[in-house]
Amino acid sequence: MLLKINKFLSSDNVSLIVNENFAINDEKFLEETCIDKNISLIGEIFKTDDSVIFSGKIGYTLTDECARCLQEFDNKIETKFQAAVVQKEDMESDEVQMVIKDGNIKMDDTIKQLIYLSFPMKSLCDKDCKGICPDCGANLNNEKCQCENSLTDPRFDKLKDLLK
Fold it and tell me: What are phi and psi of 94, to 5 degrees?
């Protein structure tokens, strides 16, 4: 994806609103990450005295597995970012950089980098997901298991005698 900003850079405008939807065509990347190829990019590009900054967010859908119930679901992810728009990439810099060439920003590598950085460490299909029964393996979101709900920590079994 190319973002054409040469008119903006040569104008007196201080900011440029960006609202783009595009598709990633890298099949290897899509297969590796399990994301839908449609990506949304919303943000604003600002000119300052000595630099150009892109502040925005990307949105995409990830086919993910719930950490509690192990069911596959579509995880809609939005992540905010801030990137410096530079003429030449500085490999020693810690910030996200977008390289501008001939008034265009090639977004593909930056978007892939932002997607990798935004992957959730633990995904839940629902914040109230009940998970699976540790005894019989039933999905507690879909069915009530028939197991005895008296699973306790054996180290505390002696304390039950105190209640009698």
Answer: -90, -15
| Beta-strand runs (E) in 66-153 | 72-86, 96-101, 104-106
Hey, what's the torsion of the CAs at 85, 90, 95, 99, to 10 degrees? 30
**Straight-line distance from the first to the last Cα atom of the chain, in angstroms, rounded to the nearest whole number:** 71
DSSP 11: S
Predicted TM-score of the model (pTM): 0.76
CA distance linking residue 56 with residue 31, whole number of Å? 26
Question: What is the edge-to-edge ordering of all strands in the sheet holding 15-23?
Answer: 2-4, 104-106, 96-101, 72-86, 52-65, 38-47, 15-23
Across the range 103-129, mean pLDDT stands at 90
Read off φ and ψ for residue 156, nearest 5 degrees.
-105, 5
Q: What are the beta bridge partners of residue 55?
A: 44, 82
Burial class (CB in 10 A: 0-12, 13-18, 19+), 103: middle
118 pLDDT tier (thresholds 50, 70, 90): very high
Asked if residue 3 lies in contact with residue 22, where contact means CB atoms within 8 angstroms, the answer is no
Average pLDDT of the residues in 43-65: 92
